[in-house]
Amino acid sequence: MSRNLLKKISLTRQNVIMMLIGLSFALLGVVLVFKAGGYDRLVGKGSVIIKHSSGQSAEQSSAFAFDTDAQDIVPGDIFDRNGVKLCDFSGYPAVHKGIYIDNEIYSPLLNTMKNKKSLCEGLIGKYYDVLRDNSGDNLRGKDIFLTIDHKLQKKVFDIYKKERGTDKRGSAVVLDAENGEMLACVDFPTFNADEPDSQKQNLFYSGSDMIWPGSTFKLLTSVMILEEDGGENILFSDKAPFSIGGYNIGNWYTEDGGYDDNCRINYLVALGRSSNVFFANAMMQTKDARTKMTDIVHRMGIGKELDFDFGCMKSLWELNDMPESHSYEDKMYHTAATGFGQGYVKISAVHNAMIAAAIINGGKVTEPHMIKSIKDCRGKEENLDEISRFYGIKGLASEHGSYELTSPETAEKLYYAMLNNNSSPSYFFKNDERKYIGVKTGTAEVGDETEKLKKALWTVSNADINGHKYAVVLVQYPFEGKANSTDMKSTLNQIYNAVEDTVAVRTDENSRSDSPDLSKIAEGEIIEYGA
Question: What average pLDDT does the segment 317-343 reach?
Answer without folding.
Answer: 85
